[in-house]
Amino acid sequence: MFGKLFKKKENNPIQKLSFENYLATVVDIHAELPKSTVTVKEQMDIIFSDTSDFTERKFHLKSGRSVYICYFSALISQPQLEASVIKPLIQNDVNFRDADDLGNILSVTKYEQTVNWKGTVENILDGNIVLHIDQLNPIILFLAEKTGRNPTDPTTEYQVYGAKFGFIEDSRKNIGIMRQFIKDPRLKSRAYDIGVVSKKQAAILYLEQYCQPEVVEHLDSLLNSYNKEHLQSIGQLSKYISKHPNSLFPQATMSERPDLVSFALVQGKVVIFIDGSAFCAITPITFMDLLETSEDHFFLSRWNLLFIRFLRIVSMFIGTILPALYVSLVAFQPELIPTTLTISVAQARVQIPLPATAEAFLMMFALDVLIEASLRLPSFVGQTIGIVGGLVIGTAAVEAGLVSHTMVIVIAFTAVATFTSPSWEFVSTWRIIRYLLVAIAAMLGLYGLVLAVGFLLVHLCKLDSMNKPYMYPLAPFDGKELKAFFFPKR
Amino acid sequence: MNIQSPYTRIGGVELFTFTYCSAVTIGFIFLPYISSEEIRSAWLKVIVAVIPYLLFIYLYKKVVTKHNDRDVLHLFKDMTSPWIYYFVITYLFASTIYSIFFGTKGLIIIVQTYLMQDTPQWTIGMFFLLVIGLSASYGIHAITRMIVIIFFHEIILFISLVLFIFSDDFKWINIPPFLTVDIGTFLVSSISEVTRYGGIIALFAYLPFVDKKVKVFRPITLSVIFIMFTYFLICLVTLGVFGFDQALTMLSPVTALMQTTTSPTGLFERLDLFFLTVWVMSFFKIGLIFVWFSSMLLKEIIPLKVKNYWVQIWIIITISTLIVISTPSIVNLDWRPYNINMLSYTLFVPVMMFLYLLIRKKQGVGQNENKSQ
């Protein structure tokens, strides 16, 4: 039933949304460009009408032949255009017989002849330059220079030992960064333009012979069939490639750390980069992958790694189940906990007007509001919000008699435990599940909680990421892999 | 595009855990003195009781070897007349529904006794069957994987039972068997113990899903022996701690065992209640297995498209829910009809099927000879 519910629809690209249709109203998109500069300019003026940043330059060679150059001024290197293209053309009086002769004059790294209108316009939009000498085939000069920044420290994935080096918003440069980490000819990449309108550059990166070829082909077909107008973020793409997009659990993970990505590539995973995002998506992933970081391998003692991973698993359980367990124990089975603790809890709750369930919901909601608020604000204000909010929740709410001390302790410990997980996406998932478990515990106590956990486990066992079971190596059971997770080989 | 996954196979580990979990739950919780047929030597009876099921496995293996097909139900369908086949399948289906009903009632008794005294049985039963229905809809691979993950539960319980033998509460003097009755009476009273292994009937539908390279009968036999050891340990420890007279009056001796260990200064004052959550999970597992098994049987009776697998599940859930909520709460479980039916549909009928299939010639053999004549 759920397989059908979660099945991805295979849509055909909606042609009317693509820019090809718009272009086809002006020119034959598959036709070659005419050899007359005047005609080409006229057509370009129509295509890029009302486009203030579209720049054209026209001049004559000493021989009298006209030269036409067009580009988007903000996307190219103007000094390089001047030095490598315009100056050599003006200074050298060469009688060009065909476009190949230009290679002897121009000092650009790469150029190629235009094929058709569609490709030419795509190249201009991509930041390249069209150079057309009258009666010759127009050529594309690859002199794009997009605005970018230098790699900086990762801002969201903090690590003690890991590399202080994060991705930037340029997919090609990010692939270049990865080539510094993995110097192997088997590191392959495939490029895509995703989004019918946005044509955002994307790329998949994988290690041949490490990665399952079917996964690459499957991703390839999915990315080629992306038919929405706009691709906004890597998260949007991750949802698109997920087999179970309605599940709460992420089936791809995101990272801004090249060291983590290189670790993932060696594990046989595929990495997706898109322009405009400093994060990449990694797939396929398992439950266990979401609990590990590349930094774990920095520990000099293997026992540290074992301890850290065990700690994360236990923390995940605590962070998810503790509020629901507290509610079921207080509301349904107080006899389960020691008498002295029961008395303490009862004394703490004696002045509280709310039932334990409402108390738990209130506190969890307040905590999530605080987290969300501190995320959206600049760091200095965010910290203040955290302190003020913490004080309000921790002290004022207790003194006002709205919540009990024990509930504050439970929720605080829950919050701290949850954040031991390295994946923020995963933390968010457990946050939602926490609410659901509290709701069930409020209705049916420990009995309901156990059955809900059982259902959750079956759901997790049903999930897969690119056909890799989510709970691997626990189920299907693979003792060697499981041992390697907790106690990797030297 | 369909990615060929090397992880979708069901292997030996999965088969071992499935066999164990399909049989162990109810026997575990209510062992040893819940049946009216009991005599004092329960620990000896559970050992004797495994023998018919070892015979079951032996015959099953012989059938599979002879016909080179693990799908016994389809073999039976091909080699017998339709009315016999549909009669047997319908009987198996009805009995499985009866087991689901009895299991749910057992769960309701446990939950109402220990966890939720004031909650009506329909709330407990309906929620249980609803969650089972939702979970079973995910299919056998998800169910199998879940069972493997939860298997640590059984290991914890097994270790706990072993540790009891070394506790001060355990007294060896309570253990020696009372064989004052004749062997005939002993064997007759062992019938109730035999049914504790009956859950392995679900293997009929499960084995065709197991990877063909896996030697299936080794994990199944090991699992049944492990079940026998678990039952043996429960009987031994219960008798050793409580003695015969006291244990006879308990609803769930294992739960009572857990109560004896709890320290009032520990984290959990009532460890038995904590273990009750383990029982609930065990009921959940066996419920999943039997709902899935009955859906497979229903498919044999009313062939439905594979895509509509969830329809079969929800038919089973609806039937079970209606039976559970329309019948009164059971105060004293009468195990006799349940045990007799269990013995019939999990042992007698399958053994008859195996013998019939062993007598019949292998499919295809002799057909060419007839044609040439």
TrEMBL record, chain A:
Keyword terms: Membrane, Transmembrane, Transmembrane helix
A Pfam family annotated for this UniProt entry: GerA
Bilayer disposition of the protein: Multi-pass membrane protein
Transmembrane intervals: 310-332, 387-420, 432-458
Subcellular location, record wording: Cell membrane; Membrane
InterPro entries per record: Spore_Ger (IPR004995), UPF0353/GerABKA_families (IPR050768)
Family: Belongs to the GerABKA family.
Protein name listed in UniProt: Spore germination protein
TrEMBL record, chain B:
Name of the protein in its database record: Spore germination protein (Amino acid permease)
Keyword Glycoprotein tagged: no
Domain of life: Bacteria
Pfam families: Spore_permease (PF03845)
Membrane-protein topology: Multi-pass membrane protein
PANTHER family: SPORE GERMINATION PROTEIN A2 (PTHR34975)
Keywords for the protein's UniProt record, in alphabetical order: Germination, Membrane, Transmembrane, Transmembrane helix, Transport
Transmembrane stretches, start-end: 12-35, 41-60, 83-102, 122-140, 147-166, 186-209, 221-244, 273-297, 309-330, 342-359
Family: Belongs to the amino acid-polyamine-organocation (APC) superfamily. Spore germination protein (SGP) (TC 2.A.3.9) family.
Subcellular localization: Membrane
Main location per the UniProt record: membrane
Keyword Cell inner membrane: no
